[in-house]
Each structure stands twice: as C-alpha cells, then as structure tokens.
C-alpha cells in the first residue's frame, strides 16, 4: 500500500482557516489597538502643540485688513501699472468700499494697517471715510473729489501702499522683524540706520544667551563631576539641593534676587559691613543681575544631563590610564572628557534654547538695554495688540531654535560616526 505525501501544503489553524491569513489578521488587530492607545496623545499634541505653531507661522504673514474691508479696490488696483495715479474706476471702488466700511465700523482696522507703512495714513483714511458717501458735481470725477478732500490722495506712494497690501498675505511683519522694508519693486532692503532696532535686539538676545550658557557650563561641569564621584548617599543628598529650585516659582526666585542684589540689599549690606566696599555696587537692574539670576535658574539643566552621563562612565577607565603612566589631567582630558561631551552638549543646547526665549528675568532684573526678543513679543501682544509683529518675532525665535537643534543633531551624528 503506497502513501502519497503532499508537498508544500498550506498550513491551517485548528478551525481550518489558513494560518497566514489568521496571523495577518491578528497582526492587524494588534496594530489597530496600538494606534487606538496612542491616538489620544497624538490628538492632544496636535491640538496643543502643532496647531498653535502653524497658526503662529500663518499669523506672521496674514494680511486680511485691506482685502477684507476694501474688496473692490483690492481687485481693481491689482492691474494698476504703478506709475501714475490709479484709474477713475479705482477711485470709485475706494469710495464704495469706504462707505461700506463706515457702515460696518471697520475703518479703524484698515487705517491701522495702512498706517504701519506710511505714518499719517490713519488720519487720511478716517478723514475720507467721514465724508462718505460722496456726491459729485456735474463733470467732477471721483479722483478730483478725493484730492479735494486731501491732497495726499494725489500722491502715488499712498496708492502703492494700498496696492502692496491688496493681498491676503504679506512679508511686512517678517521684514520688519529683521529691520528690512519692502521697496516699490517688492524686493527687501535694509531700513535706514535710525529705524533699525530688531537686529540689535536679536544680537543682544544671542549674546546674553551665549554667556549664560558659558557660565552654566563653567559652574555645572565641575559640580556634576563632583556629584558623580561622591558616595551614593552624599551624592543623593546634594542632588536634592540641585533639584530644589525646580520646586520654586521662577517669579519668586527673581524677586528673591532683587532683594539680594539691590543697592540696599543683603549682599551690598554684607560687603559694606565687612569693609570690602565703600559704597553699594549696582548689581540689580543691569546685565550683572540678569546674568546672576539666569545662571542660578538654568544651572540644573546643565548639571543633570552631565551628571547622568558621568555616572555611566566606569571609574576603571581613569585608573587604567593613570596606572599605565598617563598624567591624571591628561587621562581626564583624553579618556573621561570625550565621553561626557554628548551630555554636556545636550545641557548647553537646552540652556541656550531656554535663554533665547526668556522673558520674566530680564524684564524684572534688567534695564531697557537688557530686554530680549520675548519681551517685545509680549509688548506687541499685550500693549499694541499687533499680532502680526508678535507672531513674526515668535516665528523667528522658533526658526532659530529649530536651526540650533538641527545643527546639534548633525554634530552629534557626526561624532557618533567618528567614534564608531
């Protein structure tokens, strides 16, 4: 009796279903469950992190005022050759748009936006809107009637501003944040020196952030090394002191430094009582006070990454290098230090990124010469209600942060490849 063997027969489960099909369905079900578990967090991050960022970027180029409230003028002025004054149709469209804007009380929005480009445009728009609707005499053109109301309507530069803003987006806020202005040809050029402000503010922000980072590294690296080489009991006790500032509000810590650093504060009083100084030092409301408070607040962000890396380095490496005849400092520099670079660089990057967005400490402990970019973001948000400028400055800070992170990632990746 012969038996026939089936070669490459498909495997089936106990219920007769193909095993490959059943495994694929099980795998798909597990993936769906994983997605369902992660979905709430992904939605939360999307709504609270990504959506605000995209809204911020969009607001920095948003330009709705002229297009929304002067629609007919915006449409007709797009075909203007920008040489002489616009055609009669444009003047008639402006009269209709201003009449409608007067009725729905949107004239101040248009006037405020156009006044950003030419000072005095606010009064021109409001003065003309009060005359609406216009009644023309026999044989009189709308152009003549506008120029009769105010001679500035006969200036092509004012119409250039309207034409430039007759679109739903504008680079105006980003240009202004970089001390640039748009020419009649639409190209950016550097503003006159007396009108420049933000380049120096960005430079000041980067300069203060750089030195705060350097001071944090100079203080944090030795302290992290000391903590990493102490016995566990002492190290844990001192680590509590490092973490203690995290349990106190930044505002409270800054207020404490004001009490300590002011002319009649505890530090000046102690130095004068000891005879070290003859008159109080100016430690508060200047850059010295800003540096002291920011270093104190941000120092743990260098210590913790450096400590975590140092703790993972076996002490036998240093002992082996010294036992082979190397000097302790040379052994530290060639063996120990390169292994701590990643943690120290991460801490330095974190401190620098946090510094460029700092607001409370320079605002309370610094003079007007120490205010950083974030101060002006708050100023345009809360005082002048200029959301475009606030968004543009915030967008530039975001771009700077992402650039720093990209550079750091590239350097760390290159360092890993070289070590490998």
TrEMBL record:
<feature type="domain" description="ABC transmembrane type-1">
    <location>
        <begin position="202"/>
        <end position="408"/>
    </location>
</feature>
<feature type="transmembrane region" description="Helical">
    <location>
        <begin position="341"/>
        <end position="365"/>
    </location>
</feature>
<dbReference type="InterPro" id="IPR000515">
    <property type="entry name" value="MetI-like"/>
</dbReference>
<dbReference type="Pfam" id="PF00528">
    <property type="entry name" value="BPD_transp_1"/>
</dbReference>
<feature type="transmembrane region" description="Helical">
    <location>
        <begin position="385"/>
        <end position="408"/>
    </location>
</feature>
<keyword id="KW-1133">Transmembrane helix</keyword>
<feature type="transmembrane region" description="Helical">
    <location>
        <begin position="206"/>
        <end position="228"/>
    </location>
</feature>
<protein>
    <submittedName>
        <fullName>ABC transporter permease</fullName>
    </submittedName>
</protein>
<keyword id="KW-1003">Cell membrane</keyword>
<feature type="transmembrane region" description="Helical">
    <location>
        <begin position="288"/>
        <end position="309"/>
    </location>
</feature>
<keyword id="KW-0813">Transport</keyword>
<keyword id="KW-0472">Membrane</keyword>
<comment type="similarity">
    <text>Belongs to the binding-protein-dependent transport system permease family. CysTW subfamily.</text>
</comment>
<feature type="transmembrane region" description="Helical">
    <location>
        <begin position="240"/>
        <end position="260"/>
    </location>
</feature>
<dbReference type="InterPro" id="IPR035906">
    <property type="entry name" value="MetI-like_sf"/>
</dbReference>
<feature type="transmembrane region" description="Helical">
    <location>
        <begin position="34"/>
        <end position="57"/>
    </location>
</feature>
<keyword id="KW-0812">Transmembrane</keyword>
